[in-house]
## 1
Amino acid sequence: MAKSMSLRILLVLIILILFFSSSLAIPVVTYNVISLGAKSDGRSDSTKAFLASWTKACGSTAASTIYVPPGRYLLHNVVFQGQCRNNDITTRAGLWACKRSGNNNCPSGATTLGFSNSNNILINGLTSQNSQMFHVVIDGCHNVKVQGVRVSASGNSPNTDGIHVQLSSDVTILNARIGTGDDCVSVGPGTTNLWIENVACGPGHGISIGSLGKELHEAGVQIVTVKIVRFTGTENGLRIKSWGRPSTGFARNILFQHALMKNVDNPIVIDQNYCPDNKNCPGKSSGVKISDVTYQDIHGASATKIAVKFDCSPKYPCSGINLEDVKLIYKNQPAEASCRNADGSASGFVQPNSCLKL
C-alpha cells in the first residue's frame, strides 16, 4: 500500500513538473521573408523583405526565427543592425544568393549578409553564391554561431571572402564549405574567442588572421582555435598577415589543429610584409606583435617547395611559435621551411625541418 501511494505521489509530481515546464516555455515567433514580400526566383530584389524580417525580430521581446524557405534570393548589401531588444534570434535559411544573371544584379561592394552590433545570433543553413564582396560579415557582435554555411564564388573574384569576423567575441563557425576568390574565413582586428571547426576551403586564399596593422591604433586578435579543416587548391592554408607599418595591434593565443593540405601554395605562412599586388607598400617594420601560435597535426601536400614560411617583423619578432606533428611534402619529397625573425619550438615529427630559433 505504501509503495503504491509513493508511486502515485511520484506520478503527480512528474505531471506537475511537465505542466509548469510547458506553461513557462517561451514561444518562438517566426518571420517568414516570403510573407514579408521576398521572392525566391533569383531575379527580384528581396532586400527590403529581409531587412523587414530583421526589424521585426530585433524589435521583438520574444525569441524569434527569421525563416528563409528554400529558393534563390537576390540581395543587395543586407546588413542586420543592432542593438536589439531581442537576445535570441535564429536565422534559418534554405538558400540565400546574390546571383549574377547580368551586370547589375550584384552591385559592386555588395555583401550578401551582414550582422552589426548584435548579440546571441544563430545563422543556420545559409547558402550564398556570387556576391561581389564579402558573403557573410560579423561585425561588433557577441555570441554568434554560424553552422552549415555553403559559400561559392569564382576563384578569380577578388574580395569575395566567405565569412569575415571583426570586433566580435565568442563566435563559432561550424561545418562550412567555402570556395571563393579570396579568404574562405578572414579574421579582422578586435576578434576574441573565435572557434572554427570542420571547414572545407577551396578555391580561395585559405583561413586568414588579418590583414592586421593597417591602422596605427588597432585592436588585437586573441584566443582563436581553427581545427579539422581541409584546404584544396588554395593559395594559402593557415595564414596570419599584417602590413609593414607601425601599429598597436597583436595576434596571440592561436591554435591551428588537424589540418589537411591538398595542392596548397603556402600551407603555413606568417606574412608581416603584407602588400597585395605589391602596390603602395609601406616598407616599414610591422608593429603587430605575434605570439603563442601553435600548429598541431598539419599534414598534406604543398604546391610550392617552401611549405612553411615565417616572415616576421624585425622590430617585433614572432615568439612562441610551436610546431607539433607537422608533415608537409612537395612533389612526394620533403618540403622546405623559411624563417625570418621567428622564435619557437618543434616537437614530435616535424617536416620540413624547423627553422625556428629556439
## 2
Amino acid sequence: MKVPDIWSKPRRRLIGPFCVQMVEPIDLYWKCGLANPHTSHCLGSGQIMISCMGEPGGGGKGGFVLLDGETFEVVSNWEHPGEAAPFGYDFWYQPRHNVMISTEWGAPKALIHGFDPAHVKEGHYGSSLHVWDWTTHRKLQTVDLGEDGAIPLEIRFLHDPNATEGYVGCALRGCVFRFYRTLKGDWAAEKVISVPSKKVEGWMLPEMPGLITDILISLDDRFLYFSNWLHGDIRQYDITDRRNPRLVGQVFLGGSIISDGPVKVLEDPEKHGQTRPRIIKGKRVSGGPQMLQLSLDGRRLYVTTSLFSGWDKQFYPDMMREGSVMMQIDVDSDQGGLSVNENFLVDFGKEPDGPALAHELRYPGGDCTSDIWI
C-alpha cells in the first residue's frame, strides 16, 4: 500500500493568535451599563459570561455580561436590574448546587493608577463575597469577610462537582478564606491561612503584606497554590484536611524584599530573611510571582509576573521597562514541594513591538482554573 505524500501538499502556516472580533466598550455601556470586564467563563447554554468591575464613570459595579457564543455579540446582563454588587472581579459557579459566588476588587477609578491605602478607608475597595442563584440569577446573600478579607480576588470551588466549598485569596491582609454551605443551606466563610506582614523600611508603608493575587486548586483537589506578589513567593498547601491547610512547598521568585533592593526587612515573623534576586537563563526576574496555571497532571506550575499596569508601574518600575516573564515550577505532586526549572523562561521583554506585560495563562482545551463540571 502506498503511503500518501501528505507533506507535499499545501499546509496552513500557524502564525500565532490573531484578533477575530472586538467587543467595543460602548456596547458594554449601552446594552449593560458596565465597564472594565475581567473574568470569562463559557456556559452550558453556549453563551460566554464575563464579570465586570465597574461602570463607565469609574465607580464600582459588579455586574455580568452575556455574549453570544457564536457571534460574540453582547446579549444582555446576566444579573437582574438593580442587583449588581458594589464591586466586581472574579466568579465561579457550581451548577450541580445551583450557585455562583463572585468576588470584589475595587472601584476602577481608585485602583487604575496604583494603590493608595487611603482609598481602603474611604470605601473604594471590597471585602465581601456575593452568592447568586444560578438558575434565576438572583443575588441571595452577601458574606462580609471583614478586615482580614479585604480585596478578595480569585475564587475557586473544589473541582469535585459534589463539593460545596472552596477557597478565596484576599490580597490586602494576605489571607485565604474557606467558604462553604452551612447545614441551614446558606453560605459562610472562615479564615484558614494567614501570611504575616513584614515590618520594613524604605517602602510605602511600615508593614508589607504578601499581597495574595492568585490562587488555584489542583484537579485532584489535593493541593492549593497561591502567589504572594510583594513578598515574592509561591506556596503549596496540602488541603486534604479542608479546614486546616498544611504548607508543603514554597519557592521565591523575585518580589519587593530581595537582598539588593531598596527595602530593608526589620522584622519577619516567618524568619525567611531577604532572598537573593532570581536569575533564570541570564535574565533577572523583575516583579514577583503573580498569575498561576497548573498542568493537568499537577506536575508543572507556570507563573507570570505582571498584575496590572498601574500597579506594576508603582511597585516594579523595572518590569515596565523590561517586560514581564513566564517561569515554570516543578511540583512534587505526591508529597509536596516546589523547585524552579532553571532551563525555562519566556521573556516578554523581547517582543517585536517592545516589552509586554503578560498576565493570564490558559491551556487550550481547558485547565485548572477554567474547567467546571456538572
## 3
Amino acid sequence: MDSSTALFNQLKEAQPFFVLAGPNVIESEEHVLHMAKQIKAVTTKLGLPLVFKSSFDKANRTSSKSFRGPGLAEGLKILEKVKTTYDLPIVTDVHESDQCEAVGRVADIIQIPAFLCRQTDLLVAAAKTGKIVNIKKGQFCAPSVMTNSAEKVRLAGNQNVMVCERGTMFGYNDLIVDPRNFEWMREANCPVVADVTHALQQPAGKKLEGGGVASGGLRELIPCIARTAVAVGVDGLFMEVHDDPLNAPVDGPTQWPLRHFEELLEELMAIARVTKGKKQYKIDLAPFREQDSADVPERVKDHIIIIY
C-alpha cells in the first residue's frame, strides 16, 4: 500500500474526526513552524489525526494589492521544512494544472479551491500526482456537483478523494451553510469535510479606506457551524487557525484564535461521540400501534418528556 492510500485510510477511519488546520497563508518560515508546533501539540494531546494546512499563494484575493504569500518555490520549501521538522502531512491548494506536479512532491493532500471545483484539467492533474485530492464545493454549486467532481478524480486513476463544504452564496457578500449538504455530499462516496472558517466569510463585504474592498467574516459563529457539522457526522474538519488573527494578512476575520483551539476541539469531540450522524436513520412508516411503544428501548423511555 502506498503512503497516500495509507494516509487516506487513516483519515477515513479517524474517530471521531480528523483535522486539517493551520494559518491561511504562509507569512514567514518562522511563523509557520511556530503554528505547526502549537497545533500539533493540541491535536496530539487530544488524539486527533492532523494534516497541517497553509497556502503558498492566495491567487484569488479580492484585490490585486493584497498579500498573496511567498509563491510556489519558496512556499513549498517552507512546507517541506514543516513536514520534516514535525513529521506532519501537509495540505495546500493549487490554482493551475502546471503547479500540481511540484506540489505533489511535498504535499500529501492537494486541495482544489472552491472557485475551481469543476475545472476538469486541474482535477485530473491533481489526481495524476497520486496524492489525496480534497475538493472544496463551489459557493455557486449544489452539493450534487461534488459527485461529478470526485468522479473526475477517480476516472483519472486516483481513488483517494475527499469533498469539502464551505458555504453557499446567499445574496451578495454573504454565505450560508446548509446542513443538508453534509448529508447530500455523501453521495460522492468519499469522506466529507466541513470548512468551518471559510464558511463564515462575507466575500468582498468589508470596505477599506481608499475605496477598496476585502472579505469580512463572522468569526464568532465558527463554533456554531462546527457544532452543526460534527453533529451531522462529518469525517473531517478544516479550520484555519492563527495566533494573532487581528493582524493576519489574509482572512483575519475568519481565522480561529490559537488560544481557543483546544477548547473548541474538546467540545466538538464530545458532540461527535454522542451523535449518530454518520449512520443512516431507519424510518419506519408503518401505521403506529399502541403496543409499538413497548418496543421503545428503556434508555429512550427514560428521556421521554410528558407534556400535560
## 4
Amino acid sequence: MIQSLPTRFLRPSTRTLLSITRTRAINTTARTTLATAISSSKPSRTSLPSSLHQSCTMSTGTKSASAASHAELNRNSLFNLAGRVALVTGGGTGIGLMATQALAVNGAKVYIAGRNKEKLDKVVEIYNKDVEGEIIALQADVTKKEDIAALVKEIESREKCLCILVNNAGISSSSVTTEASDPKELKHNLFDNENATFDDWTETYRTNVASIYFMTSAFLPLLQASTERHPGWSGTVVNISSISGQVKSAQHHFSYNASKAAAVHLNRMLAAEIANAGLKIRINSIAPGVFPSEMTAEESDEFQKSHIPKEKYEDKFPSARPGRDIDMAQAVLALVSNQFINGETLAVDGGYKLAAGL
C-alpha cells in the first residue's frame, strides 16, 4: 500500500495539480448540492437553506460571487422596503403620487412634500390605507433654501436617516410656436411673444434643476446615515427628469426642455462628485415619456389622478398608449432597490424616443 506524502515533499507541479483537482472536486460537490436542492424544491415557495447559500460559490480565479437563494430572488425580497424612510417632493399628484404609492405599498415610510397642503393631506386621507408602510404630509417649497433647511430639520427630528429621496417637483413653462414660414415670423414667435420672458426661464430652472441640486445636497448626511445603518444598502436619490430633455424637438416649450436636459446632466454630475467624495449614495434619474399628470392632462379627479385618452397616442409611438401608474412604480422600485445602478437616466417612454429617431 502506497502512503500519501505530505504536500510539502511533492514537486511544485504536483502540488499545483493536486490543488486544481481538489478545487474541482469541491466546486463539483457544491454545484451538485445546489442542483439537488433546486430540483427538489418548489420554485415559488421554497428557498435554499441558509447554510447552502453561505457555502455555495462560483469560482472566478481569485474572486468569487455568492449565489443567491430562492428567497432573495423572490419578488417580496427584491422590492421589500420595510424599515426604509423615503421623501417624495411633489407627492400630491401625478408621477410623485405614483412613486409615493409604490414605496408605501412595499413597506416604506414615505414623507411627501409640496406647497399645496390640501393636496398632501388628501393623499394621506385616501392612500394611507392598505399599505405596508406609511404616508406622512409635510408642507414645503423646495425652491426656497430656508424651506429645504426646515424640511431637513423636521426629518432629522423624526428619523435617524433618510433612505430614499425622490426629487419629483417640477413645473411646465410657457409655450411658443415654432412653426414659421420665414425668419421674421419665427423671431416674432420666439422673441416677441409676451410669454417668452427671462422670468419664465428662471422659474422653470429654479424648480426643475436648482431644487434637485439643493434638495440632494441638503440631505446628504441623512442619506449617508442610511447607508451606514443598513448593510448591503445605499442611500439613494431618484430624480424625475423627462424625455423632453433628451429629444431634439422643443415641443413648443424651449425653457422646459432645456431645464430637463440640465436635470439629466446634473444627475450625472451629482452621482460622480458624491462618489468622488467617498460617500456611498446612488443618484439616478427617470426620464418619463407621456404620463397622466396635472401637467399633461391639465387636471386631476377626486382621487388626485389624471387621465389621458389612450386613442390620443395610438399612432404616435410603439406602445400606442400613455404610461400607467404601474409602469412608473416598476421603474421607481427598480432604481431604488438595485444597488448596482448609479449615475444613470432610465427612459420610461413606451418607445417615444424610438419614434422620434433617437
